[in-house]
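Notes from the pairing session

We agreed to fold both candidates in a single pass and log them together. This is the raw record for the first candidate, unedited. Please don't reformat it; downstream parsing expects exactly this layout.

Candidate A
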Amino acid sequence: MHISTSKALLAGALALSFALVTTQAFADCDEGQETMVGKAIAAAASAKIAPVVPTQSKKMINLETCDSAGGNLISEFKFNVIGSDGLYWVTGTAKVAGGQVADMKFSSLSPNLAAASSKAGVKLAAN
């Protein structure tokens, strides 16, 4: 199979332009967006685990990623909280729209949170 140089250059240019367009679809959150996203996710995560860990203090959120896409903010996070009997954590993803969490999924739980949620009959993680 023989491809002419001009066709190869055109195909390469199209691939490069497509790559540039798709990488611009997501932009990093600015500092204000990160703060808002962190507060929204921390409040939602805290509420979601409250049936399992009712007493919570010293909450901390770490945003692994925060991207702006199509009016939504999408983040991967780790949420830590001190309960009455120790440290609990969850990791997951969340979509924030209008300052509120529109969708949140936990991907993993600390072993003690997984055990507590199983004992309480509350399914927290997707897996």
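Candidate B (folded immediately after A)
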Amino acid sequence: MGVGNSGKSVADEFREYAEILLDRDSEFDGAPSGDPPLLASDYRRALYAVLALESELERTTTSPVSDGEVEAYRLGGAAMIDRIHIAIGEAWAPRRLAAREHRRHIGRPGRPEIIDEPDEGSQPMT
């Protein structure tokens, strides 16, 4: 990955930007004023982009590499993308979606904070 003006990688810059937008959107939930920083369609577009990721990642070296190294790189990229897709699926697990009515009150004054923890003995969805 290339490096931006701040010395951070382009990926780091985009991640920081996304985190800032998410933080602003969370703050908006607690004190709505004006237009929200993100709309449901923005979340949908971002999630579709992530779910469309393929395991064919760009190789950043120009040095010769063995077939085994190429395969290890490909498998490592595929495993990382799988972890991202699993994380989204887990975030949308039925037990979490069922609790959404309670979660909308997180961080609001006078409301208890609800932590979304996995149920004891639950297994990740596969």
